[in-house]
Specification:
Blueprint (H helix, E strand, L loop, with lengths): L1 H16 L21 H9 L9 E5 L5 H9 L4 E6 L2 H14 L4 E5 L12 E7 L8 H10 L1 E12 L5 H14 L6 H14 L5 H9 L7 H8 L9 H11 L2 E5 L8 H4 L3 H8 L3 H11 L5 E7 L11 H5 L2 E4 L10 E3 L5 E3 L2 H13 L7 H5 L6 H9 L3 E4 L6
Parallel strand pairs: 1-2, 1-4, 2-3, 4-5
Antiparallel strand pairs: 5-7, 6-7, 8-11, 9-10
């Protein structure tokens, strides 16, 4: 218990000294979106269908300076949001951020995940990004969160991966060695770290890795401190990650950065190897991908508490009777060149554009089914499935199939 309190106190000290993330405060809603923080889109990703209710409770567990909380409020206008964090300095910025942006349906608590039982009730949607890997006991942390997840609810988690953070861990150790008994003085740690990067040869592996991946964001001391002088970090691989997931007692619903986990992007030249990989159990399949592409620096994924009704749109008649609508996480619409939920450019065909246009025009009116829209637009059901898989549309089963 003492070690846990000491570590928690050290983590609190870091974020009191360097509140994170250091995103600027603005007097309007935050720009753009992150589909993982949009309840209808995230729920659709996890289950295949739009959720039946929008007036939900959301918990931002480890909200920091409130950047994620701000998005959660604005992307989910019928929800109520609760943010908790260990750092009082970060929470003061979170409150100011939400006041200035007009995010009014939110409350904050100076609270550890270990004390989460002090919050009343359960939550339909829990966001916990960049937190569990800084806890002295992540398993206890995820179990505490699981107890607060309502039946039918989903939770989004983000934790570090060891393979893509190897160089970071080495620099962390170098700074700690040079700090000696001054470790815990985070300003001193940042100073030493910057001196190290400035002094090492340009072709040094740690310098090259920093320049290639992190130097832009690490211009800010808050980001540099979070990465290189953090007092507590646990990095995962697929095996240890699923030990954490299984300890939660929740259902694994999939990685939200699903493109990384597509074996075809790595072995597309060899159908024989792809077939071998597909035949592996899911842990070995995922492990194969991460060892073949060891740049991975984090895992992001959804968990859910049953009952979760998942929809299979592979049946043509079922899909024809579905009611489609435009995803709220699209940028550039209306245009044939838009950005999808992951901010990737999508060049729509004329038929795809017309289908999305019909979904948009039907919104708020007597909604049309897929079949009704297709009577006027020459597009196949596979295209509809593709639009749904790319989170460009949300689908609701008709009452006949509910």
């Amino acid at each position: 218990m003492k070690d846990r309190l000491d570590i928690s106190s050290a983590v609190e000290g870091l974020y009191d000294a360097f509140p994170f993330p250091p995103d600027p405060l603005i007097d309007e809603a935050p720009p753009g979106y992150n589909w993982r923080w949009s309840w209808p889109v995230a729920y659709s990703f996890c289950t295949g269908q739009k959720p039946k209710k929008q007036d939900i409770r959301i918990l931002d567990a480890g909200c920091g300076t409130g950047s994620s909380t701000d998005y959660l409020v604005h992307l989910n206008p019928q929800s109520s949001v609760v943010g908790i964090d260990l750092s009082g300095s970060a929470l003061r910025l979170a409150k100011e951020r939400c006041i200035r942006s007009g995010a009014s349906r939110v409350e904050f608590h100076h609270l550890s995940i270990y004390d989460i039982e002090k919050l009343e009730g359960e939550f339909d949607f829990i966001n916990c990004v960049g937190v569990l890997h800084h806890l002295p006991d992540p398993i206890q942390g995820i179990q505490n969160l699981a107890l607060k997840l309502a039946p039918g609810g989903i939770m989004h988690i983000f934790v570090y991966a060891e393979l893509g953070r190897w160089e970071i861990r080495l620099m962390q150790q170098a700074i700690a060695i040079l700090q000696g008994n001054k470790r815990g003085n985070y300003q001193d740690g940042v100073k030493i770290g910057r001196q190290l990067f400035a002094s090492l040869p340009e072709n040094n592996r740690l310098v090259k890795y920093e320049q290639e991946r992190w130097s832009f964001e690490n211009q800010r001391d808050e980001c540099f401190a979070d990465m290189y002088v953090h007092p507590q970090e646990i990095d995962y691989n697929i095996d240890t990650l699923f030990e954490l997931i299984e300890a939660s007692g929740l259902e694994f619903l999939g990685f939200s950065n699903w493109e990384y986990w597509d074996i075809k992007r790595l072995l597309g030249k060899s159908p024989e190897l792809i077939e071998k990989a597909i035949d592996l159990n899911y842990k070995k399949h995922y492990r194969l991908i991460e060892v073949l592409d060891p740049q991975i620096s984090h895992y992001e994924f959804f968990l859910g508490r049953p009952p979760l009704h998942k929809v299979d749109w592979s049946h043509d008649q079922f899909l024809r009777t579905a009611i489609p609508e435009l995803s709220p996480c699209i940028q550039g619409w209306p245009s044939e060149n838009i950005f999808d939920g992951s901010y990737r450019l999508v060049n729509l065909s004329r038929q795809e554009y017309e289908f999305l246009e019909a979904c948009d025009q039907a919104s708020g009116k007597s909604q049309l089914t897929v079949e009704e829209i297709l009577t006027n637009i020459s597009v196949g059901l596979e295209t509809v499935r593709l639009l749904q898989s790319r989170l460009l549309i949300l689908l609701t089963p008709s009452s006949d199939y509910s």
